[in-house]
Specification:
Chain lengths: 339, 339
């Protein structure tokens, strides 16, 4: 194998918005799998907002990437060499690790995927971590019921697009929130949401019009002024699925600690019997992956699940694409096609 | 029956803190029970913070008391006359209604109580709505586990004292928060909490000392600066049982609407997978009353449940006592002994 590995490293911890200089792209030798390990050539890398947390050393639910370490991420690709009987060269697998072309992974962390069921890259989105996130959050917290009003922020994004379509399939009325007319049109026309509101406009007025009876379930991806507009409109027994608050990921270290912008007064939580609950899909979500995948494939077959990817060519473009993701510049699930 | 009824009416809606002039005490004829109804002479009336909400016409989970109407409340007493075969004069019952000496209640809303099991007034506290509130909130939301750290605000109050003792019985480490040295001493010495912090002192420093590893369950009765100190100390998978926020009950109408003081930034809800959930015991709690009562009587027998009442003599004193309750001037479960 004459090819080199290509890796994106964390050069320094960002202050606020990450910049290109926070990353470093290096060529290194292709790693060699040890006992029970598999060498994978990644074809697609998933870029997701949670990675911003890994760049920071503020206390969080997962360890930060070390300075000089490979950026954390999930990829799909092909087995090149295997020291485990379950995998053979040429198998397509999900579970690749890191922003890099080649990686070595324990066999136990890999899953073979059938590319007849869906394109390979879909295993990073609708059939991957973001899709699983959407499904787990609705199963465990949102629990949308027929006729309920569900509001999904970042509706055209990787998680939002799946969450909204699952809620629609369950009979809920689904209102998206997205940035700009193009994304909003996509959310309604392609994803089939009942409406989509542009958070760059007057969100309060748009919510009044779209949700005159209030909101039963709010899928929180963004925080900030969107949360501020949605929270007072929650109905009795409303649920807030706290998936992320991307609007503050670039704020000072530990934006949730001292100096964080305030949140809503919690009085209505008592009076309206609200439930505000956070979750992280990596806690126990993957144990339920087979059930999730079966549900998703069923929805695909019945035409109730479509998806949009924003594919950027080349691993060297990953830092720039990721910086744009945090600003909402992607349109659909952001993946890197690895050259 | 030559005796008159004595009633406390809502004369006007309070602006901020209720004052004596918001109430009116009147003598009226004793009511006559209709078909299926029972006439009760109340012996004890329960005074509880939720009644502040009923004095206001701001939107809430229950209808407000009408101007000129009898203040809402629960009482225990004796059957005087009955038009239902299940009840006979002399029976002791819970389910009396309103701030009044005599009331007429549908038989279906009454429950006979055995005064050999506990004193009559206990059916308004540890065996009544506040006790049921404590039990339901811990069963459904708090779910304290052995070794976990549970913090109870308003720890010497009607709900707090029961919630803390249930959590202790389940093996949790229980830290109370109360106002003043006397209440704090009671919470530790009589109720058996592991510690009790005085919210009039430096609560942050006291919490650091008492909960160095953080807090797993927070029982929210008060809001305000207590919530502000506790929230950042919640551990991963922490639960906030949102029972009440008495600190803002006297604020401008709809203190949870425009003009409400801000609450915590919700970023940590995602990162720490917190669950913040409100509940109202009257939703479905009473359906579980028999199970609750059996649990409480069991804890009493094993010496794991004690309680303190603050008994005020005379229905005419109810307005003054209630005004004091909202300022934390009561010490233990506030009940009126009806003359």
């Amino acid at each position: 194998m004459s090819e080199n590995n290509l890796q994106v490293l964390l050069r320094r911890r960002p202050a606020g918005e990450p910049v290109a200089e926070d990353f470093e792209v290096v060529e290194t030798p292709v790693p060699v799998p040890g006992a029970g390990e598999v060498l994978i050539r990644a074809r697609f890398l998933s870029l997701d907002p949670y990675m911003r947390g890994r760049m920071s050393d503020a206390k969080s639910y997962a360890k930060p990437v070390e300075l000089g370490g490979v950026m954390e991420g999930l990829s799909v690709g092909e087995v090149v060499a295997s020291n485990h009987p379950d995998f053979a060269p040429g198998d397509t697998v999900m579970g690749g690790s890191g922003w890099q072309r080649f990686c070595v992974v324990e066999a136990a962390k890999l899953r073979k995927v059938d590319c007849n069921e869906a394109p390979l890259s879909a295993n990073l989105g609708v059939l991957g971590m973001p899709g699983l996130t959407a499904w787990v959050g609705l199963e465990d917290i949102g629990e949308p019921k027929p006729g309920e009003t569900v509001v999904i922020s970042a509706a055209s994004g990787a998680v939002g697009q799946v969450a909204g379509q699952i809620a629609k399939a369950r009979g809920a009325r689904v209102i998206g929130i997205a940035g700009g007319a193009k994304k909003c049109a996509f959310v309604v026309r392609e994803l089939g949401f009942d409406a989509c509101l542009d958070h760059r406009g007057d969100l309060n007025a748009q919510l009044d019009a779209a949700c005159p009876e209030g909101i039963d379930v709010y899928w929180e991806n963004v925080g900030g002024h969107v949360q501020e507009a949605v929270f007072p409109r929650l109905r009795d027994f409303g649920r807030m699925v706290m998936c992320g608050m991307i609007a503050q990921y670039n704020q000072a270290p530990g934006a949730d600690a001292a100096g964080a912008p305030p949140g809503p007064n919690l009085g209505p939580v008592v009076r309206k019997r609200l439930r505000i609950q956070g979750f992280i899909v990596s806690d126990k979500g993957w144990q339920r992956y087979p059930q999730f995948r079966a549900v998703m494939l069923g929805l695909m077959k019945s035409g109730q699940l479509v998806w949009k990817e924003d594919v950027v060519q080349g691993l060297r473009k990953a830092p720039e694409a990721f910086i744009g993701l945090l600003k909402g510049q992607n349109f659909g699930k952001l993946v890197i096609a690895i050259d």
